[in-house]
Amino acid sequence: MPLTLERHGGSSAYGLAIGLNSLLVVVLQLPLTRLTAGWGPVLPGAALLAGVGFGLYSVAHSPVPLLLATCVWTLGEIVGSPAQVDLVIRLSPTHGRGRYQGINNLSFTLAALASPLVSGWFLDAFGPTALWTSAAACGACVALGYRLLQRRTGNAAARGN
Hints:
This protein is mainly α and 161 residues long.
């Protein structure tokens, strides 16, 4: 992301995008979490927002569209993060909730560790359009996975809110 934003938005674009992301999380996290608490499709919708937001980087080539793309994936992050934690609580046995949350957090930590290496290689090998288009496809696949999980476990257990 820093490479794409720097290429199309200048040297300060990444800082602006991450600053905007942080500001939106601080301002919108609680209101959006309360607003979406009763919605069944929270996790599939959040995954789609994240995928679309990252996918928009493939067509955004100036600062304003890059920042708008950041807003889209940030909304997915804001809605999806608390719903993901809730999903793990709902699907884990009572005696194993701490262990399940630990593994859930570890999966995100490992992804954050691997992401610069894998995406850097992917960017060099296939280019930015392929990188961000595949990120959008991953978001769609995750959304489908959440939807299938909802069907399998029942909407009340897997809606993630």
